[in-house]
Design brief:
Layout: H1 34-45, E1 49-50, H2 51-54, H3 60-65, E2 70-73, E3 77-78, E4 88-89, H4 99-110, E5 114-119, H5 130-143, E6 148-152, H6 160-166, E7 173-175, H7 185-188, H8 194-206, E8 210-217, H9 223-235, E9 240-245, H10 262-274, E10 279-282
Parallel strand pairs: 2-5, 3-4, 5-6, 6-7, 7-8, 8-9, 9-10
Antiparallel strand pairs: 1-2
Length: about 300
């Protein structure tokens, strides 16, 4: 009898899940025009950092074209390594006590009606950079008394004395971004804590400030987790919430799990207001400082 040769059965490999394709509603215009060029010139001349550039913001063309920008103080190297953020991570070596003056002068030259100021995390500093924060707001108010200011402040790691200094300069809005829902913190914000950020917002509200926060969608959160996050924020005194689509800045960063349809953004806006938030800015291209000038009028 002839010997029968048995060949191994080769199972076809499962195809890797396809990455979600960026939908049409996320297309943005390239930054152009004389107003944009003027802001570009002022930022370069005064050696300023903007989160518009460092964070690869999709609205940079629109905002800079309108003569506005979000300034980033305390350098452009962050001590945190959040998986979503395009800002460089490392050991910062920039600590410029003259920076508040330069930012204030640039805001005056630009004729900004509403300025947004943010910063990298400076965990290595004893006061988390609070003194520079305070002076930037104070000096901006001195040079441009009619300019309203929002400060988007980092996690102070429970240094509540630093928080008190950061929010005491006279700004109209104090923002601190949650960024995502509680279950994703270890993945998205490994050096932050969900409850600690909530406490920072609560303490800011107890100090009598107008409070604001932002969450990125499309990282893998569920609807129930979003509802819980909005409930938690409302319970801790949040006034204003921004909701926008997460966009992967580079291949090294966490991938987009899902592109959220504009209809769901509209639903979350309705839910946020129903759950006690006073103002919700919700849409695929919404970022923390998008339409920020509208937020100063939210009653506290």
């Amino acid at each position: 009898m002839d010997e029968i040769l048995m060949l191994p059965v080769i199972q076809p490999q499962a195809a890797a899940p396809a990455k979600p394709r960026k939908p049409d509603w996320l297309r943005v215009k390239l930054p152009v025009g004389p107003a944009y060029a003027n802001v570009r010139k002022l930022v370069d001349e005064h050696k300023l950092h903007t989160i518009c550039e460092s964070g690869n913001c999709p609205n940079m063309g629109e905002c800079w074209g309108a003569g506005t920008a979000t300034f980033m103080i305390l350098g452009n190297v962050c001590t945190r390594s959040c998986s979503f953020c395009a800002v460089a991570t490392g050991r910062p070596n920039e600590y410029d006590l003259d920076e508040p003056r330069r930012v204030a002068e640039a805001i005056k030259l630009m004729g900004v009606k509403h300025a947004v100021i943010t910063s990298v995390n400076r965990d290595e500093l004893k006061d988390r950079g609070a003194s520079v924060w305070y002076e930037t707001v104070v000096q901006t108010k001195q040079l441009s008394p009619t300019t309203t200011i929002e400060t988007l402040i980092p996690d102070v790691k429970a240094n509540w004395a630093a928080l008190d200094t950061m929010i005491a300069g006279g700004q109209e809005v104090v923002s601190h971004n949650m960024e995502t829902v509680g279950s994703l913190y270890r993945l998205v914000r490994p050096q932050a804590k969900y409850d600690r950020s909530l406490e920072q917002i609560r303490r800011t509200k107890e100090a009598g400030r107008r409070t604001k926060s932002g969450i990125m969608l499309g990282l893998g959160e569920t609807k129930d987790e979003m509802y819980q996050a909005m409930d938690d924020l409302a319970a801790n005194g949040l006034d204003i919430l921004t909701l926008g689509q997460y966009l992967q800045p580079t291949k090294r960063h966490i991938e987009v799990a899902e592109f959220i349809h504009p209809d769901l953004f509209a639903h979350y806006k309705e839910e946020g207001l129903r759950r006690g938030l006073k103002y919700v800015e919700s849409g695929p291209l919404v970022r923390s400082s998008y339409h920020a000038e509208r937020h100063v009028n939210v009653p506290i």
